[in-house]
Amino acid sequence: MALSKIQLPLKNVAKTIRNVASKLAPRDTGNLRNVMRSYNTPDRMVKFDKSGGAKITLYFAPPGATYGKYWNKPYGSGSGRTATIKKRYPQHFDYAEKAYKDPSVKRAIKEYTKSLGKQIATDLREAVRKG
To answer: Cα–Cα–Cα angle for 50, 54, 57, nearest 5°?
Structure first.
C-alpha cells in the first residue's frame, strides 16, 4: 500500500522519537544505544491499519540490546545493582517515557496534526468542488 500524504509525515514523528530515546538511553549497557537506533527504523515503528489509523511503537529493548528493559523499567528498589545505577545515572532511566514527553517530540506531533488538518481541509474542498 502506498503511503498517503497524510501518513508519510508520521514517519518523521517516529524518527524524532527514536532520536530522542537513543540520546537518553545509557551508552554502556550492551551497546544499547546503537542497537536501539538501528532497530527502530520508521518502517518498523509505524504500523498502519486498513482504516487509515496508525500506531507508533518504540522498541526500547530490541533484539541484541538485552539490558534495555532494565534501564527503562528497572525492577526492585532499595539496594542492589539496579538501585545503585539508578542513583548514579537517573537521567538514563525511563528513557522511553522521557522521549515521548520530550518537547521536540511534542513539537513534531503538533506539526503533524497541523499538516493533517490542512490536508483534510484540502481533500474536503476538492470533494465539494467535484460534487
So the answer is: 130
How many whole angstroms from its chain centre is CA 82? 25
Q: Looking at the domain assignment, is residue 2 inside a domain?
A: no
Tell me the C-alpha to C-alpha distance, in Å, between residue 12 and each of 6, 16, 17, 62, 111.
12, 6, 9, 20, 10
- The DSSP element (H or E) to which 14 belongs, if any, is helix 8-24
What total number of domains does the chain contain? 1
Of 16, 2, 11, 17, the closest CA to residue 46 belongs to 11
**Segment 112-127, tens digit of pLDDT:** 888 888 888 888 898 8
What is the helix (H) or strand (E) element at residue 21, kind and residue range?
helix 8-24
pTM over 0.90: no
Q: How far apart are CA 54 and CA 116, in angstroms?
A: 13
Question: Which domain does 57 fall in, by range?
Answer: 8-130
DSSP annotation of 2 reads: P
d(CA 122, CA 127): 9
* Cα gap 56→35, rounded to integer Å: 18
